[in-house]
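Lab manual, section 2.4: Encoding a predicted structure.

Procedure: take the sequence of the chain (553 residues), apply the prediction step described in section 2.3, and record the output as structure tokens. A sample record is shown.
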Amino acid sequence: MLDRFLAQYFERHPVNATFTGLHTHDHRLPDWSRAARDTDVAELAELHDALFSAFPPNGDAALATDIDALDAELARANIDVRILETQSRFFHDRNPALWTGEAIFSVVSLLLRPTQPIEACTASIKSRLRAIPTFLGAMPTALTEPVPAIWIDRATREARVFAAFLRGQLRLWCTEHGVTDAERQSLNEAAADAAQAFDVAAHWLYLLPRDVDAGYAIGGEAYDILLQRGHFCAQSSSALLQRVLGEMPAAKARFHALATEVAGSPEALGARLADDRPTETEYLATFTSQFEACRALAAQHDQVGWPDWPLRYVPIPLWARDIAPQLYFLFYRSPAPYEPRPEHRYLVTPVDDTIAPDERERRLKAWNHSTITLNHVVHHGALGHHVQNGHATHMSHSRIGKIAAVDCASRIGMFLGGSMAEGWACYATELADELGFLTPLERAAEQQSRVRMLARAIVDIRLHTGEFSFAKAVAYYVHEVGMPEAVAIGEATKNSMFPCTAVMYWLGTQGILDLRDTMRQRADYSPRHFHDALLSRGSIPVALAARLLTATS
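Recorded output:
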């Protein structure tokens, strides 16, 4: 039964399959026509009933000890969310950026982790390039709902950026990977047709009416279903909102105190952080040295099992440097659990003599010590995502827990993996602070991140339950947490496109902290045992993991 569920999932999500390391679908794009999505709903409803019959709900104790029953419950939750997404008409029926992102990263997924031999990889890339005109050609008919202007702008920009890439920088990838002249010719022909399809899509989007009245809210009822079935949260959105609002004053006060102590004021903190940066010669080595220091810290304090999954920080490859800042091009993408490789590459913005001096200085200020330590080491590359992904892949017995949080085209593979993936990563930075790993400047920056995490949860709930307009969401970020307006617009855009996603950072982090408080009351508590037990569940909702841990302790 679980085999049937996973087979249907990957059949309907071939690009997700590639990112997961399953290459049987590398030649395909999904069918997002309305008829295909209606068929998908029917298949999912039948699977849901069959899973319910095979594994009827039987309490947390049973889920904690029967891994198939747990996966059946997770599969049903995934089905509930996917049916909601289709029936709400909030996603593929009105968001062109989902379409452009899927088409773009169907190709980028193969460029980032080319399969061997390279001829097989280029064959898959050509197949997907040839499928793009049909895929994007279905978008005008499928987008039946009013489209917010800011979503149109994002999709249009991405389509144009990737069309230019296919006509230009793709040749750099071919050179890097030794593609033969004959293969280049056929690849270029397929790329030219795909680039034309992106141009056509961009032009159609440009002509699409800017509907100023298009709503951004999925609605309170749908939002609460996402909370309950996606995050296994027992509280309503209104109850969560009151809790987050209650935490915000103390978080802001602590940030104000820390920023004033190290920089004179919260407003001056940004300049102090930018000034605390590595030199050009130290830049790349700083990532590695901080990674090793973070791993040594975890070992010294016996905090968590560190998976044997080597990671290396490298500059973004030449072929990707123009498109990376303009697409959903993550510096760290979770390693493919179905295709483990000896080493995982963490891509960082290059700072070298191929770049103009003024731009090198700007990049060093942006990639300062705080940014490197908090974001690219603790949160992503070391104690946070990479350790969590290692446990999910190598320690979890849950088949869904292994794959749910894999980074895909526009979001992770399964919505239900988010609170663990992001909750653990944000918790990891707080844990690093508790263990004395952060400098005073970094502690202030970490507390600012905590304030912004709360703000994102507030905006997410208020925007999608209709309490905030898009403009009010932007204004909240600007006036309440001091975001620059351009950053605030970017945050509000992400919030609007993916309901109940921004809240999962706080929901997961706070869920882990609350669970730790509970487990500390037990006589046999140890940080290592607690963290390993939590992470060994895989990328499942933190609220569900908490129930399972307390049921078996």
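Check your result against the sample. The radius of gyration is 23 Å.
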